[in-house]
Give the backbone structure.
Amino acid sequence: MQRGPQVPQFTHCIEKFKPAFKTAVHFSCDAVSVFLFLSPGSYVHLQPQCKGLDRQLSSLEQIYAQCSSIFSHVVELRLQGNGDPQVNQSKSWLRCLRPFNAVKTLYVSDCMSSELQVHIARVLGELDREGVAEVLPMLHTLIFRRFYIIDKEVIPLLKPFIDARQQSGHPVAVK
């Protein structure tokens, strides 16, 4: 993805809003879509066309780098997959979660399976003590779609993350 001449203008325009943003990131087989909800009824949609999760996460990293001041204000992040088993094949997830230092609620769903949900639980659960403080530091609610179905898979993976956040005085509720 090339940084076009409109990106600085776009960033400057968006920064004027400064409310609590919501962002949804949807992964499909041939693209990743980023929806930045600025206010009720107002959003920006970015969609770099790329196949494969590693390329999609790399595209997201470039978007985040160009618009870091915007993503640092996001308070609700939704990660949505399409049931593609490739979601657990990348080590780039943490780099994609780091820019969201104001996120209070993380919602994870996968339309067809629980692959994305299980993988995000695994990624968070494998964080060391420093990582727990750096990745999503303001997080207080973690919501998994179909949690009642995958509870037995997700909770054991998330337990180290939940325990570390509790010990640091920044507990996370899982729903």
In short: Residues 67-174 form one domain. Strands lie at 21-27, 32-39, 42-46, 74-81, 105-110, 141-144, 173-174.
